[in-house]
Design a protein that fits this description.
The protein is an alpha+beta fold. Helix content is about 45%, strand content about 20%. The longest helix has 18 residues.
């Protein structure tokens, strides 16, 4: 397993452990607010909102908080005016990093993110400097108790691009345009996903063989993810299991 995939796995486990933290709840609430503002408060007619609700529930966000966030986005109570921003730069070792943020104060957010890159031997770049290295895709994850052959056949019929057999899960990859139709088509066939989200997949990876550099990369990514305004972080590194285990230890 590549270091990048392993980092994603660590992230997922960490999110579960930290699911009660206010900062995590804030991230999900912001996505709910913006989704409701852009597409309306009815999840039946707003796919982005529906997926946001499912993710928020999976993270343990109380139903009252979910409803309150949707109401804010729909204008029932003065909603914060969040804007969606993307920051791009390089971590230590020349690793490309893309940060998706939602903020009501872009100067504060940009200043914080720039300081994190600088602190961990990276550099925040101009818009577009590394974004082209990542392909926007849809990612739909399933537990391994589903019938793989049936999942594969159904996903391909629905125009999914790929089905990955990973260590702990199956992952269906789609284009962003086909994401909603594949999710809904699989649901109609009885497949219940663990998660469904838009993501960015690196076209290639940078092999990191120096433990100190690897440590700086992971510290930067952790710091970025802990920031209230940051929704998602993507990077194109590949760190060996051996170095990852040393750093985890």
């Amino acid at each position: 397993m590549s270091g990048h995939s392993k980092w994603s796995t660590i992230k997922h486990k960490k999110a579960k452990v930290d699911s009660q933290r206010a900062v995590v709840f804030q991230k999900y609430s912001r996505e709910l607010i913006v989704s409701a503002r852009l597409g309306g408060p009815d999840p039946a007619g707003n796919f982005r909102l529906r997926t946001a609700i499912e993710k928020a529930k999976a993270a343990g966000l109380p139903n009252d908080n979910i409803k309150r966030a949707i109401d804010k986005g729909a204008g029932a109570a003065g909603a914060e005016n969040y804007e969606e921003l993307i920051y791009e730069g390089y971590a230590a070792g020349g690793v490309a990093v893309v940060v998706e943020a939602m903020t009501d104060n872009r100067n504060r957010t940009a200043g914080d993110i720039r300081s994190y890159f600088t602190k961990y031997n990276g550099s925040l770049g101009a818009t577009g400097c590394v974004g082209w290295m990542f392909d926007p895709k849809g990612s739909i994850t399933f537990d391994k108790d589903v019938d793989y052959d049936k999942l594969f056949e159904t996903a391909i019929t629905l125009d999914a691009e790929d089905i990955l057999d990973e260590e702990e899960e199956y992952k269906v990859i789609t284009s962003t345009e086909k994401f909603q139709s594949v999710v809904e088509g699989l649901e109609a066939e009885g497949f219940k996903s663990v998660s469904a989200e838009l993501t960015r997949i690196p076209q290639n990876t940078v092999e990191v063989t120096d433990e100190a550099v690897a440590s700086q990369i992971l510290k930067l990514l952790d710091k970025l993810e802990e920031h209230d305004d940051v929704q998602n972080v993507y990077a194109n590194f590949d760190i060996s299991d051996e170095i990852m285990q040393k750093l985890e230890g």
